[in-house]
Design a protein that fits this description.
Layout (H helix, E strand, L loop, with lengths): L5 H7 L7 H26 L4 H10 L15 H13 L11 H18 L1 H27 L15
Helix pairs in contact: 1-2, 2-5, 3-4
Length: 159
């Protein structure tokens, strides 16, 4: 269900590809955007604006703040967001997350996971296991290839 999920809805509205590998990519895109739309909703629910979202994510150790430079926020915007988060008791003076900041980010991730669960529930246990069986080795090979950066703004494996 892509109701209230504009990016997932837009991807789902595209024609379904005939080639199996392109169909898999299309399906993964829909799922990625489904999760991403839910993540944006969770961030908004936590009263985090876009730059605060990144600053708080860096503050819990997802990646060094410099890695987030690709997102285009100026140093002034980043520092302003840090000051706002510190004012809310979410950041320490050194820019790391306080216990409250860690709890807020954990709640954002919990809500994101919860809102992204429906497609996986729809698959059912047998189909989920089959998907893991098919994609697990590919995932392990991809991670071990060295082709992906070891540190990203996604915080994969860090948070």
């Amino acid at each position: 269900d892509v109701t209230g999920r504009p990016l997932a809805g837009a991807a789902a509205a595209l024609p379904w590809p005939d080639e199996p590998h392109v169909a898999l990519w299309h399906a993964a895109t829909i799922l990625r955007e489904h999760r991403g739309d839910g993540h944006v909703a969770a961030l908004l629910g936590a009263d985090l604006d876009p730059v605060e979202s990144l600053v708080s994510f860096a503050a819990v150790g997802a990646a060094r703040p410099e890695v987030f430079a690709s997102r285009g926020w100026s140093g002034e915007e980043w520092e302003s967001a840090r000051a706002r988060l510190a004012g809310r008791g979410l950041l320490e003076e050194d820019g790391t997350a306080t216990l409250a900041g860690r709890a807020l980010r954990a709640e954002v991730e919990r809500r994101t996971d919860e809102s992204a669960a429906q497609p996986w529930r729809e698959l059912g246990p047998e189909a989920r296991e089959r998907l893991v069986e098919l994609l697990g080795p590919l995932w392990v090979e991809t991670i071990g290839s060295g082709l992906l950066p070891s540190e990203t703004t996604l915080g994969i494996g860090k948070v």
